Amino acid sequence: MKNPVCDLLGIKYPIIQAGMVWASGWRLASAVSNSGGLGLLGAGSMYPGVLREHIQKCRKATSNPFGVNVPLLYKDIDQLMEVILVENVPIVFTAAGNPKIWTEHLKKNGCQVVHVVSSVKFALKAQDCGVDAIVAEGFEAGGHNGREETTTMTLIPLIKKSIKIPLIAAGGIGSGPAMLAAMALGADAVQVGSRFVASPEASSHDNFKKEILKAQQGATLLTLKELTPVRMMKNPFFQKIQTLYENGASINELKEALGRGRAKKGMFEGDLIEGELEIGQVSAQIEQIIPAKSIIKEFIETYNRALKNLSEIN
Fold first, then answer.
1. Which one, 7, 33, 91, 115, has least CB within 10 Å?
2. In terms of pTM, does the model score above 0.90?
């Protein structure tokens, strides 16, 4: 399967595993890369020393390309970038911040740079900064998200006609047919997050993975827009936030309730009561915890089957 993103990143299949906090360690990233996709390490939940360790372990576990996802608002961003460059990571996905600050520096050091956006406006800005590709993420996606609440099926064609560089679709993509739909709308590849959380290789807690299997339609909601918009499961902590909204809580009260380490408590430590459980709407479609290799295989097989079925309609 050859296309601009496969050529750019040196991968077999146009499937990128999202660099999710508390889920995307070296085991998951290397398993995806070994299976023909692009594995990403989620630097947003890593100290610089931890990131270095994961990069080195990932390199030992795979001879295929892999990358790092970096939230640009991370407080120790300078240290993370230093680790990435010293370790010669070839591919960097940036998100949650201004790509202008780091793109030129990364590219001068030989990195391919891809930036995640949730609107046409920011896609154009990222392109002007010189990034090599864009990830357009619809609001179905889990974790931190755009305020506009633009769905992936609406966002992809809007951005496709506005940019000249390769486009990667993200948000609500948990199967081969969904991948086909995104590519039919103009995407060159897909970025998949939630589906890979429900894999043995994901570093997220087993309690969280099992909770994902219980998710039904409407189990998640985008909230905390006054701080940083985040899609999470409707667990007791989420209900506590909703009660604060109903009582007219201030931004400071919301910040106090959120506190520190809430995502780690939920996704990494497995506290389903007081933790923040970040996951996408597509969690309602996930029924099994299966290896990353099987997820990639399932994507490709069902993509090809759906494509064949469509071709037979005519």
1. 7
2. yes
